Amino acid sequence: MHQVSETEFELDADYIRQAIDAEARARLGISGEELLARFERGELEDPGRVADLLALADLLREPAVA
Amino acid sequence: MADRRDLFLGEVRRLAEGARTEIGPFRDLLRLLLETTVIDPHQPAPGVYYARGTRDRADIGGVGRYQVLTPLPLRDGRWLKLAISLFVEETKHGRRLKSSQSTFQYQARPEPDTGDWIFRYDYLRDPRGSYPPAHLQINADLRVGAVLPDIRPLARVHFPTDRVPLEGVIRLLAEDFDMPCAQPAEVWRPVLAEAEKVFKQIAHRPPFGPAA
Asked: Is the pLDDT of residue A65 over 50?
């Protein structure tokens, strides 16, 4: 994580994946990869519980091509 | 009082205009809404977490020493877990700032995964599964028995809603949960109303359930 200013940060993909993985294991006992796979399959129980992790995962998406 | 209200209203309009296309003004608008109302004044405002190498995709949420998107401390000693995912898109109408998801969770403890949450509004622009794209959950028990299956307590019921912005959540906290606010109601009520007016003009309105 790179701090740009007091309230601005840059997150690289490795940091994001590690943060999701650590929290997914702590909260649900599954890997971050499994968490995101279950979400994509629509099999994630109570996704609101991990909404912050899903928001982080959103930063991994490739920009849409116009 | 009227001067102060008009000052804030002018700032809301200025930031809201910038927030149509840029992440920075959107964050500053949220900060203004929170600082005039419910956020603990001694804590840092919401931060922006950009995807490395871009300024067109970011999350907004609390700033913690060891964690990103940490819950924000509120004036009543409780917490608001806030996370909004934003992206900028070139549309036929020009550059537009959009939100792909948001969550607002009022909770009694600071941990991101606390069981002591009170209510939660979630929105997903591109949802998966059977849940309504925008919904409300309440961490409570029904007073009437034998209504829900045992495996689904009330807290696991996803009540479909329209998309609820931060303004609506702040108003709910102030009006119904008696949350003390930084500014008097004569100031924060019109400030929230003004910001919400802009939100309604540009917000994506999800369906009330998943696609058939």
From this structure: no
**Which residues, 6 or more positions from A36, have their beta carbon under 8 angstroms from its beta carbon?**
A20, A57
Work out whether the CA dihedral A45, A46, A48, A50 comes out positive or negative. negative
Contact (CB<8Å) A10/B53: yes
- The residues near B143 (Cβ < 8 Å, ≥ 6 apart) are none
Return the H-helix or E-strand segment holding B120: strand B117-124
pTM given for the model:
0.94
Nearest to B39 by CA among B20, B63, B16, B17: B63
Measure CA B152 to chain center: 26
Contacts of A51 in chain B (CB under 8 A): 81, 83, 101, 103, 105, 120, 122
- Do the chains contact at B129 and A42, CB–CB below 8 Å? yes
Which site among B27, B39, B49 would you substitute to test the A interface, given the most A Cβ atoms closer than 10 Å to its Cβ? B49
Report yes or no: A51 at the B interface, CB cutoff 8 Å. yes
First and final C-alpha spacing in chain A: 29
Domain boundaries, chain A: 2-58
- Is B136 touching A (CB cutoff 8 A)? no
Which among B47, B89, B113 has the least Cβ separation from residue A64?
A: B89
Question: Does the CB of A7 have a partner CB in chain B at under 8 Å?
Answer: yes
pLDDT by 10-residue block (mean), chain B, 212 residues? 92 95 95 96 90 94 87 97 96 92 97 97 92 96 91 94 96 98 97 91 81 68
State how far the Cα of B136 lies from the Cα of B120, in Å rounded to an integer: 6
